[in-house]
Design a protein that fits this description.
Oligomer: single chain
Structural class: alpha+beta
Number of strands: 23
CATH superfamily of the largest domain: GAF domain
CATH class of the largest domain: Alpha Beta
CATH architecture of the largest domain: 2-Layer Sandwich
Distance between the termini: 48 Å
Number of helices: 18
Radius of gyration: 33 Å
Number of domains: 5
Strand order of the largest sheet: 3-2-1-6-5-4
Amino acid sequence: MVEKTDQQESLRFIRGLGELYQQIGPDPEHNIDIIVTRLQELLHVSLSTYTVFDRQNHELIYRVLCCNGGISRKRVSPEGSICYETIIMRGACPACYEDLDNSEFAGYDVGLDNFHLGSFLGYPVMMGEEVLGALCVGSQQKRQFSEAEKMLLQTMAKIVAVEEAWLDTKNNSVAEQSKYKVIFDLADDAFILTNTDLTITEVNRRALEMFDCTREQMIGEGLSVFSPVNQPDGVRSETRAKGIYLALKAGEEAKKIYWKSKAVTGAEFESEVSFCLISQDKGDMVQVIIRDITRQMETERNLIEARKRAEEADRLKSAFLANMSHEIRTPLNSIIGFSELIMDEDTEKEEKENFLGLISSAGRTLLQLIDDIIDISKIEAGQVKISKSKSELNQILDELKINYEKERDKRGKHHIELRMHKAYSGEFYIMTDPFRFRQIMMNLLSNALKFIDSGFIEFGYTEMSEEQVQFYVKDTGIGIEKDKSHLIFQRFGQVDSSYKRNLDGTGLGLAITHNLVGLLGGKIWFDSEPEKGTTFYFTLPASHDLQRNNLISVNYGRIMYDWSDKVFLVVDDVEANFLFLKAVFRDSGALLLWAKDGLEAVRICRNNSNINLVLMDIRMPELDGYNAVKKIRQFAPKLPIIAQTAFAGQAEEQIAIQQGCQAYISKPISKTELASLIKKLLEEA
């Protein structure tokens, strides 16, 4: 009974994290507020707070204090605070007090007395090795905190750390731009006076500094002497200057122009020049104001490049979050859906055992995804520790070959030949981290296995020199387009982030691999040709030395409508999703057909005019869901089609309607919501 309660609590926390994931947006500070608020709700505690220690002012800042349904913020002295004394000062240690009345903080921490707290749990929020603050909860009851509750708080502390890192990145970007603006605003200008033939008669101090010369070297020289022979557009500097003077003489107003200048040393620099004609009794003179804009132009170019990088980073982050949402929701859909069916008393024992296997498989998929996210977070925080030891390469490669032959067979790719090449047949040792080396090879082999449908995969190594060994993983898969090659090792990049796909994953594996190779002291690169394959190479030193509440209704029964005269087509490339829907619809009497991709869906619809409704997944191989809908609409314009996808949000629903679907439902799928939606569409048809 206790075990079942723990499982239910863990499942509730998983759902809570899923709901939290949907609420998180682009504003890190708002996200932290949401995290602290949701933490209080999930743990059923009296108080939740996120405190940060301001070392400069020696104050403890309650960034978020959630209590009695409200949020407050304040600054207090850190001394005596349980958050400060037990977590921040003790160096990244969590704290748990199940009876505060009998602790050293009874009567010592004013906050505990004010909120009448009986128990306390807190975890540090870390950025690298630095403790930023503490994420804490308190209950007015004396209570024990379960392992699941502790794990949830620890997980949320890591999520807060990610938001803090994102906030720090944004603040640094603003500060950097402000610094450049100050440089521009405070820059001195060079002032030069010339006569009408543009011979220099007077200069200021800044002009001497700018052209790296003495006053004697400038006075009496022609203005063109301090310019290259030609300007960037090919016009001679002397001709351009005389033309500007004649235009001023003819009555044109003074104006600023871009000008290439040259110091006495011969060094050229970019400048902004203003020519102005000054009329006086002694005769006309020309005032030339020169501003060295080399740094400004460089900064502008850097800012343009930084803006492009920021826009690309934002695009990649959006694509990454969309993919993350899809990849997390897909196994969650199986876990939550089949969990409900297992709890259904009408489910047969054999079915339950099958469902448990599917839940286990989905759980492993979710675990691998979380492991990848944790690895990326550790890499960004500089927390990946390398432990080198004497490692025997041939033994590791033999183990990898055995494991990936099994993985190949499990994926139904028995026809793919797995080859291995060793430079030495005997024992061959290098000093490296064997765990991280295996991780690199596994990522590359898994990547190759994803992208290949025929041919072979070959992996191995060659000793290039006494200093380094070159490893490689070669496949005869789909290859990589040249215009996409720059995305391969980016953290949030994927070659194809569109709806069409025939692969799983979030694009984290190669980013992790790239960083791990660097941490081991090597380099990684690749050669690829579209439709012919890809070879990844890397070297190593050879020293022999997550807004929707209630994601799914609590409904343990199946759909009870009588649809025995109906035929539904389920279009989904994931078999577990079809099996889930098949079990859900079993008691309704409906006949379910299954198409594994868009092309098959079009063919089945064309050949079966008795189909009453289509449940269409969007991201699929061969032909994605929306393009399949367009083809179906050519011969079945009124056939009810529901878009079912792990992408959530109002924008996605609008896209589904625009693409020709009558309705939209997001995964994890609520059986009640799905039944109501189908009933409505069938009545309207």
